[in-house]
Amino acid sequence: MVDPQKNSSGVSFRLKKILNSIDRMRPMPSTVTRILHALEDSKTNATMVGELLGLDQALAANVLQAANSAYLGYGPSCANLTDAVVRLGFGRIRTLVLGVEASSTLTGSLPGYRLGAGELWNHSVATAVAAQWFARAFSYPNPEDAYVAGLLHDMGKLMLDQFALADYDRLFDLVRNYGLTFYQVEQKLFDIDHAQVGGMMASKWNFPATLIEAIQCHHTPDQATIKPELSAIVNIANALCPLDQTTLSRLGKREVHPSSLVILKLTPEKLENMRGNMLQYLRVGSQES
Ligand SMILES: [Fe+2]
Ligand SMILES: [Fe+2]
């Protein structure tokens, strides 16, 4: 029997609409793309990055603020962008650039997921900080990458929100009554989930391949092939980072994927132990700041 929801190529109309929305996405601001590419290029020096940062007021202000931040252990003596780049290093500059860009989109409300203003942002920052902590604990070579991947892991929800809103009742019925996670329900209703959509958005914005993969595989780290450890770290951070009760009830069930334990060579006991240490670290950090 022909499914009226599917066209001749077997792609559902809703999925087609979702793919079209990704296609029509606004491009990443060119300054951000240029900085990200410059940071990947071995011929780039701090002066060149400083000059690019100077083209964007918000980025420049954030980088100078971070370079003079007592919280990060620096003194207030960095007056120009080149010195700030030298002080912070390319890894942290990339984190800041993507963080500033993300914060402008992730802070709004998502009515389709019933997330109020700031709720997705808070969850994203909590996941980012936890991912960076786990990355350090596993001696992952680039903990800054784990931070960025954690910050952006759910960006696909921004794009799926309008579709979730249109199908809100069915979506929440499946989450509540069948014990499914959001990404499983999205798969059922839309033939695509927010992790896949996020990966497509990231690739449209020319993010580095490791970052695209970590966003795309944060619920399915077993599918990662470039840096499975990064996807597994974000998967664990997403599932174990602290959340307030209201947001928790709206985000639904969070799970550590079994393959995360395999990839990171962990036993459940060891993970539980690490979770305790991570939570203690976050508590101490929030008391100090
Ligand atoms: Fe997610
Ligand atoms: Fe998440």
Strand-helix topology:
Layout: H1 13-23, H2 30-40, H3 46-53, H4 57-67, H5 81-106, H6 119-137, H7 143-152, H8 156-166, H9 168-178, H10 182-190, H11 194-204, H12 209-216, H13 228-240, H14 245-251, H15 258-263, H16 268-288
Helix pairs in contact: 1-11, 2-3, 2-5, 3-5, 4-5, 5-7, 6-7, 6-13, 6-16, 7-12, 7-13, 8-11, 9-10, 11-12, 12-13
The protein binds fe (ii) ion (FE2) (2 copies).
At the fourth level of CATH, the homologous superfamily of the domain at 107-288 is Hypothetical protein af1432
What is the rounded distance between the termini? 61 Å
CATH fold description of the domain at 107-288: Hypothetical protein af1432
Radius of gyration: 20 Å
CATH class of the domain at 107-288: Mainly Alpha
Helix fraction? 55-70%
Q: Tell me, what's the shape?
A: globular
Label the structural class.
mainly alpha
Descriptive overview:
There is one protein chain. This protein is mainly α. The chain has a domain at 107-288: Hypothetical protein af1432 (Orthogonal Bundle), CATH 1.10.3210.10. Helix content is 67%, strand content 0%. The protein is built from 16 helices and no strands. The protein has helices at residues 13-23, 30-40, 46-53, 57-67, 81-106, 119-137, 143-152, 156-166, 168-178, 182-190, 194-204, 209-216, 228-240, 245-251, 258-263, 268-288. The longest helix is centred in the first third of the chain and has 26 residues, at 81-106. The chain is globular, with a radius of gyration of 20 Å. The termini are far apart. The model has no long low-confidence stretch (mean pLDDT 88). Bound molecules: fe (ii) ion (2 copies). One fe (ii) ion (FE2) is lined by residues 123, 127, 153-154, 238.
